[in-house]
Amino acid sequence: MTWLVTGGAGYIGSHVVAAMRAAGESVVVLDDLSTGDADRVPGTPLVVGSVLDGDLVARTLREHGVTGVVHVAAKKQVEESVRLPLLYYRENVEGLRVLLEQAVTAGVADLVFSSSAAVYGMPDTDLVGEDTECRPLNPYGTTKLVGERMIAEVAAATGLRYANLRYFNVAGTADPALTDRGASNLVPMVFQRLADRQAPLVFGDTYPTPDGTCIRDFVHVADIATAHVAAARALAGGSVRALTANIGRGEGVSVRQVVDTVRAVTRTAGEAWAEPVVVPPRAGDPARVVAAADTIRAVLGWEARHDLHDMVASAWAGWTATRAAAV
């Protein structure tokens, strides 16, 4: 069988493509290259275009004999979604609708959907399980929740098999060539500050946590990728028909711990100018969001294998390689 990976030239998508190919799966990528890079998917068929283009999607499915889809393509910046909600509804909701329409018409049997812990919003619980009430706080999280419900309803009507995978905080890289080239997530944000010889920023230190900073569940992008492979194979093999599962380590680390690990890896821990500076907390940031990862372990036999140091060290290797290549 052949899998179509939408958004497969992006940071997460390219890791999924690499993991699927390493597992012996046949893959084709559809990416509009708005944030992706063709260099991330060498040797993999690449169709340049958007999931909003129904004719292109239909042609890609037909010409490549696609039998399963891994849908990673999406807009994913929380702050941007608040400013541009209609853009997010068009790209994330309408894009998925078009993809589903064409996939059902083409007889595609299986769909893995890249969802997000943003569907939960600000849960008041130590561990966030899949049965935790979903109350997204921003348009990005809402589009992911709408996507999950759309998929479930289409599946009920058509027999489509699906897995909704809710990512927690993604970091790291499996290959410097696939590294996150943005600076909107915590780890690359700290890298950027240190590279500019500026102190890292910590948004609030009065939360009800051991060190006063927010606690999150960070998961290595290589682990995210293997979770997709496990889900795809379970769907194709018929052992799973409808799954919604968290992807996380089930272990929280604080923002201060992340910053300290970055400073240790970058060898700036002893520099006075690199001491983190506390600034006011951001509106809507919950004190603690940590995954309960029991479902994916029980159903797919998957668990995260990389720790925080692995994530930061690999991300730093990718960050420095990217900067060197740009010089």
From TrEMBL:
- What domain of life? Bacteria
- The answer to whether UniProt assigns keyword Transferase to this entry is no
What InterPro entries has UniProt attached to this entry? Epimerase_deHydtase, NAD(P)-bd_dom_sf, UDP_G4E
Ranges for domain NAD-dependent epimerase/dehydratase: 3-238
> Gene3D superfamilies, from UniProt?
NAD(P)-binding Rossmann-like Domain (3.40.50.720), UDP-galactose 4-epimerase, domain 1 (3.90.25.10)
Reaction catalysis annotation: UDP-alpha-D-glucose = UDP-alpha-D-galactose
Q: Which UniProt keywords apply?
A: Carbohydrate metabolism, Isomerase, NAD
**E.C. code:** 5.1.3.2
**Top-level EC class as recorded in UniProt:** isomerase
Q: Does the keyword Secreted apply?
A: no
Pathway connected to this protein: Carbohydrate metabolism; galactose metabolism
Q: Name one GO molecular function term.
A: UDP-glucose 4-epimerase activity
Q: What biological-process terms (Gene Ontology) are attached?
A: galactose catabolic process via UDP-galactose, Leloir pathway
Q: Which cofactor does it need?
A: NAD(+)
Family, according to the entry, reads as follows:
Belongs to the NAD(P)-dependent epimerase/dehydratase family.
Q: What is this protein called?
A: UDP-glucose 4-epimerase
- Specify the species: Geodermatophilus saharensis
